[in-house]
Amino acid sequence: MTEVWQLWTYLSEGPLLWLTVTLMAYLAAERISLLAGRAPLANPVLLAVILLAVTLWATGTEYETYFEGAQFVHFLLGPATVALAVPLHANLGRVRQALVPMLAALLAGSLTAISVALGIGWLMGLEMQALSSLAPKSATAPVAMGVAERIGGAPALTAVLVILTGVIGAIVVSPLMTILRIRDWRARGFALGVAAHGIGTARAFQVNETAGAFSGIGMGLNAILTAILAPLAASLF
Amino acid sequence: MIFPITVLLLFQLLGEVASRLVLPALPGPVLGMVLLLGALVTAPKLAAAIRPTANGILSHLSLLFVPAGVGVVGHLDLIAAHGLALITALVLSTVLALAVGALVFAGVAKAMGQADD
After folding, report:
1. Where are the domains of chain A?
2. What is the pTM for the complete model shown?
3. Is the pLDDT of residue B115 over 80?
4. Are residues B16 and B56 in the same domain?
5. Rounded to an integer, what is the distance from CA B70 to the centroid of its chain?
6. Is B95 on the interface with A (CB under 8 A)?
C-alpha cells in the first residue's frame, strides 16, 4: 500500500499524469458526444470538464497541481486563435460578399449581449462590480478579462462568466436556430462566434466548416467591438 | 509539421508585439490571426503549407478550453454568491444575442439578394 502511495505521490506531482488525464477525458467526452449524435447537451467541453472536476475532487488534487500538466493544452489556445486565419482565408470570397450582413449582425449581436446582460443583472439587483464583470462576457476570455479589469470588474469572475457563456451558446444554438428557421450556415456561425466566442466556434466547426469559419470571424470582430462597447455601456449604470 | 507550427507561433509572437506596442486593447493571438490573414492573402502558397496543421488544431478546438473550464469549477462559489441574477443574465443575454445576430445576418443578406450559394 505504501508503494502505491509513493508511486501516486511521484506521478501526481509531475505534469505527465494530468496532461494524459486531460487528453483521456477529452477523448472520452468526444466519444460520448459522437455516440449522442452531437446532441447539444453532450457538449465535449462540458463533459470533459465534469469528468476532470470529479477526478480532481475524488483524488483531492489542487487545481494548481492539475494545471501544471494541463497548461500545455491551454497554451495551444493562442496558436489555435492564429490558425483561424486559415479557414477565414479559404472563405475570403464569401466573407467579402457578406460584409454588410456581417457588420450589421456584429453590431446587433454585440449590443444585445452587453445590454441584455447589464439590464437583467441591474433589474435583479447586482452591484456595480458584478455588472462590470458581466458586461464583456461574450468576448474571448483575454479580452473580456482585460475589459472587466479596466471598468472595475473582477477578472476571475469574468473568466467564469465567459466560459459559462460559451457553453450556454454551444448548447442552445442548434435548437434555437431550428426554431427560428435559420438555415444559412454563415448566419448561424457568425452569430455564434459573436455571442459565444471560441467555445461557440468549436461547436460551429463540429457542425459545418462554413459555420466554423464565420464563427471565427464573429469571435475576432466581437473581441474588438466589445473592447469599445462594454466600457461605454457599463458607464451608463 | 514543424514548419506550420513555427509559422503559427511566429504570428502569435508578432501579434503579442503588436498588442504591446500598438493596440493594447486586443490580445496578441487575435492580432496574430489578422496578421496571418494578411500574409495568406499576399502569399497563397503559405496557406496550402499550413492548412493541414491549422485544420487539425481547429478540429479539436474544444479540447483547448478544457483546462480553463476545470478552473471555473473551483470558482463556482463566485457565481453562487450572486445567485440567480448572474445565471439569468447569462442565459437570456446569450440566447437573445444569438437570435438577434442570426436574424439580422439572414435578414440583411436576404434584403441584399445575397443568399448563400
Report:
1. 2-75, 83-234
2. 0.87
3. no
4. yes
5. 20
6. yes
Nearest Cα residue to A194 out of A109, A117, A121: A109
Mean pLDDT by 10 residues, chain A (237 residues): 83 89 96 92 92 95 93 92 90 90 97 96 92 94 87 88 94 96 96 96 92 92 90 87
Contacts of B52 in chain A (CB under 8 A): none
Measured CA to CA, the distance from residue A111 to residue A23 in angstroms comes to: 37
- Which of B 7-66 lie inside 8 A of A, CB atoms? 8-9, 11-12, 15, 25-30, 32-34, 36-37, 40-41, 47, 50-51, 53-55, 57-66
Q: Chain A contact for B75, CB < 8 A?
A: yes
Are residue B60 and residue B86 in the same domain, yes or no? no
Final residue before a domain boundary, out of B19, B38, B64: B64
Residues in B closer than 8 angstroms to A49, CB to CB, are: 66, 69-70, 72-73
> Domain span at residue B48?
1-64
CA distance A46 to A217: 23
- How close B24 gets to chain A, by Cα (Å)? 10
Burial class (CB in 10 A: 0-12, 13-18, 19+), B7: buried
**Angstroms from A3 CA to nearest CA on chain B:** 30
